[in-house]
Specification:
mainly alpha; 27 helices; Pentatricopeptide repeat-containing protein At2g30780-like; TPR-like_helical_dom_sf; PPR_rpt
Length: about 500
């Protein structure tokens, strides 16, 4: 995928526009192309930003006194949420307060709104309302839209579709019910069904897609990294002169981040800033993640300053992303900044990969004390290092510090915890033993190598030869040369002592 994209949707999106024209066009006979299921199944994180979908379908209804009454009822329901019989009884006792006979059922919608963080309980409330509806107190399309969305969040896609059909049978099919079912499909990673439903909606003469509809498509295409389709959808929005909202921009930015298209991400953000729409918290969090992944530390720090308190308290993954960005940078004070961020991450948020990254960082910077602290954490959590390059970084740090005792201790622990074995580890130990004239321990190193199935190589024997030769150990020099002959290694004549 080329990274040299410009902010336009003509030539680069031409093929995608042809695709979209199949389900944007007027022909009812053309069968829409569906995103392949094997691609759709890759989407397992489509719930990101789903809370934003809520504002597309509903505004918080009701007066402050009504909100207060529903808050009390919500607390009662939450306390009894494990007992469905008790939940129904509470709802029956409060049926009058729920204003079921009032047009629109504002009190009930307020209750569903307040139960947004508990979708399974909210769905119970919706089903109670559905079962208590009658000719004098019918359901409306707004309530069905809410129920469809709740079923999707509870991962009950079949029930969401059943509610959609029920609303259609009652003549309540609307843009909102379409949007709710599309959102349910999106939430559950069913991109092909979401797109197919959009095609059905385009053919429905009673409904017109709204900005919410297109926002859902932007989210689906962005999550699948189908950038051309995402851009063509955005072009379609502009062609229809729909009012863009913050969700539109956020899904566009998110799509570029998923595709690692940093220039386009920045252009989308600048376009947002120049529009009447204002960035929200979600926007800043997205941009912070994008700048961290792209290694743009200056803008990452600028964005972090805008949302610092929120990130420090609730966005631990973003803190980890920032640490990764610093680890890959050449900033002189990056370790100080990393240490500040690490203090914000609770112990229960430990991640093996991050700890290994820190080991590598401290080793490369030759911060032996910090490296050993990170090694201890890895051993305590049973985190193995399986990469030779990282093992070599650790070895080099011990070698440059001439820390033989620490190296020997590390070797013992690494062996017992099943870390990656490599000859460099033992070769370094041989060199350091020779440098400190612990010649009697050098043969022990060969046995250690055999115990981890590492055979003696020509390099191993040459290291021992040079150590013995430099120390004037003529008998050990000859013994080592004999081992080299035994293993079939060539030895120059000048290597023999005179």
């Amino acid at each position: 995928m080329t990274m040299k994209r410009v902010w336009r949707f003509s030539s680069d999106a031409a093929q995608a526009q042809l695709f979209l024209s199949q389900f944007h066009g007027k022909s009812h006979s053309t069968k829409p192309r569906i995103v392949p299921s094997f691609i759709a199944r890759q989407v397992n994180t489509l719930s990101n930003g789903l809370s934003e979908i809520a504002v597309l379908f509903t505004a918080k209804p009701g007066s402050s006194s009504e909100n207060y009454r529903m808050a009390i009822l919500r607390n009662q329901l939450v306390r009894e949420s494990s007992d469905s019989v008790r939940v129904r009884k509470i709802l029956d006792e409060n049926s009058e307060a729920l204003n079921l006979h009032q047009p629109g059922g504002h009190a009930l919608l307020e209750l569903l709104y307040q139960l947004n963080s508990n979708p399974s309980l909210a769905l119970q409330v919706f089903n109670w309302r559905r079962k208590n509806s009658n000719v004098g107190n019918p359901m409306n399309y707004f309530e069905y839209s809410k129920g469809i969305k709740l079923a999707g969040r509870c991962k009950n896609v079949d029930f969401a579709f059943e509610l959609f059909k029920e609303a259609s049978t009652k003549g309540l099919r609307s843009t909102s019910t379409y949007n709710a079912l599309m959102a349910a499909y999106m939430f559950n990673g069913l991109a092909d069904r979401c797109q197919s439903l959009f095609c059905d909606m385009k053919r429905d003469p009673t409904c017109n897609p709204s900005i919410a509809t297109y926002n859902i498509l932007l989210s689906v295409f962005g999550s699948l990294m189908l950038v051309d389709y995402m851009e063509a959808t955005f072009q379609e929005i502009n062609k229809l002169h729909l009012d863009l909202n913050i969700c539109t921009y956020n899904y566009l930015i998110s799509g570029y981040i998923a595709a690692w298209m940093w220039n386009d991400m920045e252009k989308a953000f600048q376009m947002l800033k120049s529009s009447p729409v204002r960035p929200n918290l979600k926007t800043y969090l997205l941009m912070l993640r994008g700048y961290a992944h792209s290694g743009n530390l200056e803008k990452m720090e600028e964005m972090y300053s805008l949302v610092r308190d929120h990130v420090n308290e609730k966005e631990i993954p973003l803190l980890r992303s920032m640490i990764c960005a610093y680890c890959k940078s050449n900033q002189a004070d990056k370790i100080r900044k990393i240490e500040v961020l690490l203090k914000l991450i609770p112990e229960e948020e430990y991640r093996p990969w991050l700890n290994v990254l820190l080991i590598k960082l401290y080793a490369r910077e030759h911060w032996i004390e910090e490296m050993e602290n990170a090694l201890n954490v890895a051993f305590e959590h049973g985190t193995p290092v399986t990469t030779v390059s990282i093992m070599k970084c650790i070895i080099t740090t011990y070698f440059r510090s001439n820390a033989l005792d620490k190296l020997e201790n590390f070797v013992r622990r690494a062996e017992s915890f099943g870390w990656r074995s490599c000859r460099s580890l033992y070769h370094c130990k041989l060199v350091m033993l020779g440098g400190q004239h612990h010649l009697n321990k050098m043969q022990d190193v060969l046995w250690e190598m055999e115990s981890v199935n590492l055979g003696c190589t020509k390099k191993t024997l040459w290291i021992m030869y040079k150590v013995y030769f430099s120390c004037g150990q003529k008998s050990m020099v000859l013994k080592t040369l004999g081992q080299m002959f035994k293993h079939g290694h060539e030895v120059p004549l000048h290597a023999f002592p005179s």
